[in-house]
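Email to the structure team, subject: Peptidylprolyl isomerase model.

Hi all, the expression group asked for a predicted structure before they design truncation constructs. Nothing fancy, just the tokens so they can compare against earlier work. One-line instruction: predict Peptidylprolyl isomerase, return tokens.
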Amino acid sequence: MNLRHIKAFLLLILLSCSVAQAQDENKGVVIDKIVAKVDDYIVLKSELENAYLQFMARGEITQGDVKCQILENLVINKLMVAKAEIDSVEVLDVQVEQNLDQRMNYFVQQFGSEEKLEEYYDKTMEEFREELFDQIKEQMIVQKMQGIISDEVSITPAEVKKFFAKIPQDSLPYFSTEVTIGHIAKIPEPNDKVKDQVRLELLDIKDRIEAGIDFGVLAQKYSMDPGSARQGGELGFFNRGELAPEYEATALGLKPGEISDPVETQFGFHIIQLIEKRGNRFNTRHILMMPRPTLSDIQETKDFLDSLRTGIIDDSLRFDILAKEHSDDKQTSGNGGFFSDATGAMRISVEELDPTMFFTIDTMKVGEISKPFEYKMPDGKDAVRIVYYKSKVPPHQANLLQDYQKIRSAALANKRNGIMSDWFDEAKGEVYINIEPEYDYCRIMSD
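Reply from the structure team: attached below.
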């Protein structure tokens, strides 16, 4: 997603959050309006129109009336949220905060700084978080319900071909230039001296807490976990197996109120206080400190990646195998280091590349591997990577030979939508649903 897409995406979110309150000052009439209501949850006309514009801009493959399909999906989403309340399916606020942290870090990275993001939209980071929190929580609840309802759906090649054959030729999307690119990313490992210093700092903080200073106050001041730091370090209740193994083992070995010595996980070093245990669930708070690598640590990582690059160029080593073994980017390492789009296809539009990657491959030839260079990962961590520019496909109209993965994904989504529609038919009798008469032609409430 490039900067232009980031700005458009954020703007659509903020418009959908605020437009319901907009009024014509002369007439006192609400500009936006409710097009559907599911119990206490509403679908706004702006929400429908924005979703439609986003869908059309992506050039996705579909069948039938797009706007009706989107409205039905929005209504189903609201029903899933309402049903989640009835069925006690919940998403913890701390999980929403963690998701929100990742998104905001990504947005900040694309804009260059928090100040630039705030200046562009004339909103503070806190205002962004407040406006996005409820929407992201709803999205996470919907995802959880979708997993319960239709996660195990599969599709055969014959079903994919049948789906594609039903799409009118003039309705097939036209894809822009697409590329296959991968990377091997390494997070420089801080040396032992730096780690020891962090341990000593955390032990000092532990001593201060045990001397009477409030844990929450020090968490807000020192913890590098922004989501929990705002809550005084508290993470909320988790089940066994949901947190880092080292963190969980330490936490469950404590008595309520007891504070651990520093413990290392993949995220850094923590001191942990157990607040409460309820069977297999436990609530803790922590202070996280992340040791920073030195310049020599970073150079050591660059030297390591350069040795991998030399081995690949000499044809003695395979890029995909090395990425699986060594890359610290877990989102791509499973794909042999290659990036994928929303459908899972390892060929992505150049329009969707982040600016750093776009300008990197713009200076490369197909088949080349870059020299190691520093960059920031989506979560904000400093890292070093080498980039492999494997292939480039010119603009073309969708076809089974070149775009099978995209078409398969669309066919699978269509099948899942059918399952969701069946679920909707069964569940809609349990809640109040009203859809504006102007959308009667969509026949969403028809039996």
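The chain has 16 helices and 13 strands. Residues 3-169+399-442 form a domain with the Triger factor/SurA peptide-binding fold fold (CATH 1.10.4030). Ping us if the truncation boundaries need rechecking.
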